Amino acid sequence: MKKSVRRAVIAGNWKMNKTPAEATALINEMKPLVAGADCDVVLCVPFIDIPAAVQAAKESNIAIGAENVHFKASGAYTGEISAEMLVEAGVQYVVIGHSERRQYFGETDQTVNLRTLAALNAGLKAIVCVGETLEQRELGYTETLLKYQTKMALTNVTAEQLKNVIIAYEPVWAIGTGVTATADQADEGNGFVRAAIAEAYGTDVAETVTVQYGGSMNAKNAEELLAKEHVDGGLIGGASLKAADFATIVAAAK
User: Fold this and answer.
1) CB hemisphere CA count around 83 (13 angstroms)
2) Are 127 and 166 in contact (CB under 8 A)?
3) 220-246 burial: b if 16+ Cβ within 10 Å, else e
């Protein structure tokens, strides 16, 4: 991390876990554990949990995020949620383009871009996910793919709007598998993302953008990963469902 030029962000992605009552209990358990954090702390929760999470996180340093957003403000999109709805519900962040959304729900690079623009235009902070499959890595396409996905996601995003964008490098082969990229692999991947931003916006701007690593970051490996130059935080899956583990990761971002 280079905290002199960019902010570290530790964000939990709860996926499809926790009822509203469970969300309240977990956030109440977390609050004292992360109160002194030297980074931004975010919990991205299922839509149904947002009101309870926002209420539980009041007067704490925990910001609440959503796990997806639609690119239209309203319309015949059954089951979707607009950026304006999220803002009114008290949400500050939103995860966009997670590999599970891409794999199971037809998300594409084009829709990731549209969702990113919608989120930014509504005043949300976007956590945009990019990452390669194991096959793509083995074929040597990691750099090409990460740069392509990053630039596609940021199409028509202004340099001013980029201040509210976080890119999360999540190698698909390391999400929910228990397999973690080595610290060097994570740093390399994040470096490819930063290089893509530099190509689009210039090096000075790229140096200010927070690039997280996601993909089985946990209490045991967080310190090593977060020590790397290009790893500015984490998008945390399973470990964000355990207060003590999440707090350990937050503490590692010192």
Assistant:
1) 20
2) yes
3) ebbebbbebebbbbbbbbbbbbbbebb
| CA-based R_g, the chain, Å | 17
Break the chain into its structural domains and give their ranges.
9-252
CATH of region 9-252: 3.20.20.70
Please say whether the beta carbons of 236 and 168 come within 8 A. no
Task: For the chain, give the DSSP string.
Answer: --TTTS--EEEEE--S---HHHHHHHHHHHHHHHTT-SSEEEEEE-GGGHHHHHHHHTTSSEEEEES---SSSSSS-TT---HHHHHHTT--EEEES-HHHHHHH---HHHHHHHHHHHHHTTPEEEEEE---HHHHHTT-HHHHHHHHHHHHTTT--TTGGGGEEEEE--GGGSSSS----HHHHHHHHHHHHHHHHHHH-HHHHTTS-EEEESS--TTTHHHHHTSTT--EEEESGGGGSHHHHHHHHHH--
Q: What is the pLDDT of residue 234?
A: 96
Q: What is the mean pLDDT of the chain?
A: 95
Tokens of 189: 């991947």
**In degrees rounded to 5, what are phi and psi of residue 231?**
-95, 105
Q: What would the mean pLDDT of 21-29 be, rounded to a whole number? A: 98
Find the farthest-apart pair of alpha carbons in the chain and give their distance in angstroms, rounded: 48
Q: What is the pLDDT of residue 215?
A: 83
Query: What is the spatial distance between Cα 80 and Cα 9, in angstroms, rounded to a whole number?
Result: 27
Active site residue ranges = 98, 170
Whether the pLDDT of residue 195 is over 80: the answer is yes
Amino acid in position 86: L
Is the C-alpha dihedral spanning 202, 207, 212, 218 positive or negative?
A: positive
193: tokens are: 């993302």
